[in-house]
Amino acid sequence: MPEISIAELARTRATRPEAIAEAARRRVRRPLLGQRGRLMVIAADHPARGALGVGDDPLAMANRPDLLERLCVALRRPGVDGVLGTPDVLEDLLLLGALEDKVVIGSMNRGGLAGAAFELDDRFTGHRAADIERLRFDAGKLLLRLSLDDPGSLNTLHSAAGAVNDLAERGLTALVEPFLSRPVGGRPRNDLSPEAITRSMSIAAGIGGTSAHTWLKVPVPEDTERIRGVLESTTLPTVLLGGDASPDREGTYERWRAALQLPNVYGLVVGRALLYPADDDVAGAVDRAVALL
Which of 76, 138, 230, 285 falls 20 to 30 Å from 206 in CA-CA distance? Predict the structure, then answer.
């Protein structure tokens, strides 16, 4: 892995904050979909929600130089198209020159902190559409967790629709990650049943004044026989999310492979499962995922 100097990054931020905007202006951009017509994106927006754990390590993602090193390894692998992150992470990568000719997706709502009493109140505390446009990034990602038992979910839905509209007005892609959540032991848990995934996709596809620039980011049902029925519930371009690193890695790859055969599924957006694999071989894990495309 490359060695990342936290001292150098901090010094640049302290003495030349304008360097971030300069790097954004210079960055070489590319189309969202390249010649392959597929998309492989590495996700790193977990820390801003306080979700730092991977497996048995509750602070695995807390070491910023280590996270940046892993991201740089992943972004250099053939077939990796880009990264999804919050402003602090993406701006570090800009200063490192790691985002050249990459798709860059800004994470917009990180207000629903992991484990908080207000976890489902996913307010927009990260990138705004105007920031994504100013920094010459390519898309904005929003998490849309809805609970039918929580009246506050209507505010989340309304805010998400506003974000989709703001992005569409600028010709920017909105990557919407929908879930239906329900309380389990006093805390919200995403319902990953085929019925819940289908319902959440149908809701997300219809928000905003136009769906012309909307993509969906969704989990793959564990029931492989129902993957087609779930993912064909929309004509919107769809990518698959990775979620936590699963002990059944082979099963995860098989579900991804099956879903990637569908005509509206364009790729993968995966974070912890590739950045923190069980064997700590980031390059190997990324290459294996890329091969599925």
Answer: 138
